[in-house]
């Protein structure tokens, strides 16, 4: 039996032999099926020799097949006997300890299972100087996090808990919070438990889907103003946002709505295509997207250090607002990025129903990290925008100086002649040293009013007038519990910190103290004024994605128009509970 098996194996593995048999068989078949050549071929010595060889090989193959059939028949009987003994042994073991076979892991033997190979898009393994090697990189946490954690290098993925909320789901990078390392596999899909909700992904992360949102609930008590209407105490839902995001290879998308100020609005609603260009990660985005403008102004409301953004972000704002419907392009390097955007008004504008053209805005922002180490880094940034404003009845602007629970207290100029266009720009300087950080921002916005305004009901003396408003902000802070400041170096903005001693693990959470001073001067604008504010704050991070905030702000303002003309000052104590999922 061994010799027969060896001979048959040799026949199957001998490529030359198989080729010879095939050639001979085809040759004989051709001769037989063509009678006109049969008689001539019968007298050809080469044909006669081929005929003899084919007959001999056919006889040998027939004998080998007969022997193989006998071998396989005997093997079936042996296998059946072996399986019978194994079944008896398994039954005895099963009686002692039941075992359930999962159909997903152990399909019936008769079903052929082919596992498809999924290929994701060109995910770039973006690393920053100072990051740990890939094997121990905090970019990919171990399956079981050990607390307390250790502070990570500033700007590294180990220093933050997740990417900023305004980012696309696919950026070529992936950071996770320590509590998100628990995952479940169901039917070939992976459920990654993160900030309160699971993310459903394929094993290779080529496809993903998750819900996202934030809840920011504020209370503020204002006092000290010489105008009683400004001394109010009230609550407000700063944001109640719910949305979904996902990706299919390089294509990602976000859709979310928000309920705040007693209004329901569409916020992020865009899709992004990620790719590579000259070995750099790039993003192409279409839809309604949050703008990049200044350090604080490029950060979502759930990730700023204080209850509200600094005065550079709040004052030097285009007419269209924080969001815009249009297109954006970003390119990223190891220590820099450039973001451009062209957009009109956001999707909630009244332009559609009024059949009015959009305010068209061109924006650019860039940042660069010239130096970094295991303990510190320096960030330099610049931004700017130009806007072509649609015709309107008038123009006015009010800059909130206290928390959002007191909208009445602010710097106001206008109403005046409609705005024709404006151009703004600013610079950023950000630094980290251990658990401490500091930000300096300056910006200016030059505005030009319209030369003509048909049907103008206001005084025409400001026709064609121009003016510039300037704003400056300095803020600093430190984590008392040793966390690395919550800075996302990939895009140069705030993110959520990685708490070293979370409350859910029996720790004290993350404690941060901060202070800020803001200044604005708009006196060169018709009816413009000036103001300054000082704020101190304490943040308690129970988890990386849940915190309590306490702010005290003192503001001093001089208005030339509005309901509260003249010099004035006021104070407010604000509290916020915030969770981002």
Q: In brief, what are we looking at here?
A:
Keywords: Coiled coil, Signal. With 581 residues, the protein is an alpha+beta fold.
Structure explained in plain terms:
- With 581 residues, the chain is of the alpha+beta class.
- The chain has one domain (157-451, 464-580): Porin, CATH 2.40.160.
- Helix content is 17%, strand content 43%.
- It contains six helices and 25 strands.
- It has helices at 2-13, 15-33, 35-42, 45-96, 311-315, 351-354, and strands at residues 160-162, 182-186, 189-193, 198-201, 207-223, 233-248, 251-260, 263-277, 280-290, 323-332, 336-343, 360-372, 376-388, 395-400, 410-416, 419-433, 436-449, 466-479, 487-488, 493-494, 496-497, 510-521, 530-543, 546-559, 566-580.
- The strands form four sheets. It has a 16-stranded antiparallel β-barrel with strand order 5-6-7-8-9-10-11-12-13-16-17-18-22-23-24-25. The chain has a two-stranded antiparallel ribbon with strand order 1-21. Strands 14-15 form a two-stranded antiparallel sheet.
- A hairpin with a 2-residue loop joins strand 23 and strand 24.
- Helix 1 crosses helix 4 (45-96) and helix 2 crosses helix 4.
- The longest helix has 52 residues, at 45-96.
- 37% of the residues are buried.
- Residues 1-13, 23-41 and 85-144 have low confidence and may be disordered.
- It comes from Acetobacter tropicalis.
- Residues 1-40 form the signal peptide.
- Keywords: Coiled coil, Signal.
């Amino acid at each position: 039996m061994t010799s027969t098996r060896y001979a048959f194996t040799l026949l199957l593995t001998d490529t030359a032999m198989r080729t010879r048999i095939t050639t001979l068989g085809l040759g004989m078949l051709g001769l037989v099926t063509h009678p006109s050549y049969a008689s001539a071929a019968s007298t050809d010595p080469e044909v006669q020799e081929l005929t003899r060889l084919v007959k001999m090989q056919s006889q040998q193959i027939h004998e080998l097949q007969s022997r193989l059939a006998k071998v396989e028949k005997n093997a079936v009987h042996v296998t059946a006997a072996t399986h019978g003994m194994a079944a008896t042994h398994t039954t005895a073991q099963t009686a002692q300890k039941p075992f359930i076979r999962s159909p997903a892991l152990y399909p019936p033997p008769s079903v052929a299972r082919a596992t498809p190979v999924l290929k994701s898009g060109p995910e770039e393994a973006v690393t920053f100087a100072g990051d740990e090697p890939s094997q121990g990189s905090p970019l990919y946490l171990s399956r079981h996090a050990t607390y307390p954690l250790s502070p990570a290098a500033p700007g590294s993925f180990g220093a933050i808990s997740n990417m900023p909320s305004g980012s696309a789901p696919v950026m070529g990078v992936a950071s996770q919070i320590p509590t998100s390392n628990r995952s479940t596999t169901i039917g070939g899909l992976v459920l990654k438990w993160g900030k309160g909700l699971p993310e459903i992904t394929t094993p290779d992360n080529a496809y993903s889907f998750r819900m996202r949102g934030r809840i920011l609930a504020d209370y503020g008590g204002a006092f000290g103003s010489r105008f009683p209407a400004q001394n109010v105490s009230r609550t407000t839902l700063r944001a109640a946002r719910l949305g979904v995001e996902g990706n299919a290879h390089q294509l990602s998308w976000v859709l979310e709505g928000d309920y705040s100020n007693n209004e329901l609005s569409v916020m992020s609603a865009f899709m992004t295509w990620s790719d590579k260009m000259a070995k750099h990660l790039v993003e192409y985005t279409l839809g309604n997207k949050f703008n990049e403008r200044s350090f604080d102004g490029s950060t979502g409301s759930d990730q700023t250090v204080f209850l509200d953004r600094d005065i550079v972000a709040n004052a030097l704002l285009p007419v269209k607002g924080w969001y815009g419907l249009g297109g954006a392009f970003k390119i990223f390097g190891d220590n820099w990025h450039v973001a451009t955007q062209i957009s009109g008004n956001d999707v909630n504008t009244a332009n559609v129903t009024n059949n009015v053209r959009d305010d068209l805005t061109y924006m650019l922002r860039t940042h660069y990290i010239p130096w970094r180490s295991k303990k510190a880094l320096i960030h330099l940034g610049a931004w700017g925008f130009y806007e072509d404003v649609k015709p309107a009845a008038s123009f006015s602007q009010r800059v909130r100086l206290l928390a959002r629970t007191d909208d009445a207290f602010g710097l106001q100029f206008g109403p005046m002649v409609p705005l024709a266009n404006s151009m703004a720009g600013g610079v950023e300087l950000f630094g980290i040293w251990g658990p401490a950080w500091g930000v300096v921002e300056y910006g200016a916005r030059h505005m030009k009013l319209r030369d003509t305004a048909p049907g103008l009901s206001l005084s025409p003396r400001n026709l064609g007038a121009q003016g510039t408003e300037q704003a400056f902000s300095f803020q600093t802070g430190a984590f008392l519990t040793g966390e690395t400041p919550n800075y996302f170096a990939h895009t140069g903005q705030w993110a959520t910190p990685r708490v070293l001693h979370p409350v859910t693990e029996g720790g004290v959470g993350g404690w941060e103290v901060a202070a800020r001073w803001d200044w604005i001067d708009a006196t060169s604008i018709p009816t413009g004024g000036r103001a300054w504010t000082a704020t101190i704050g304490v943040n308690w991070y129970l988890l990386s994605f849940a915190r309590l905030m306490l702010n005290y702000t003192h503001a001093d303002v001089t208005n030339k128009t509005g309901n509260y003309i003249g010099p004035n000052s006021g104070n407010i104590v604000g509290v916020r509970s915030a969770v981002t999922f």
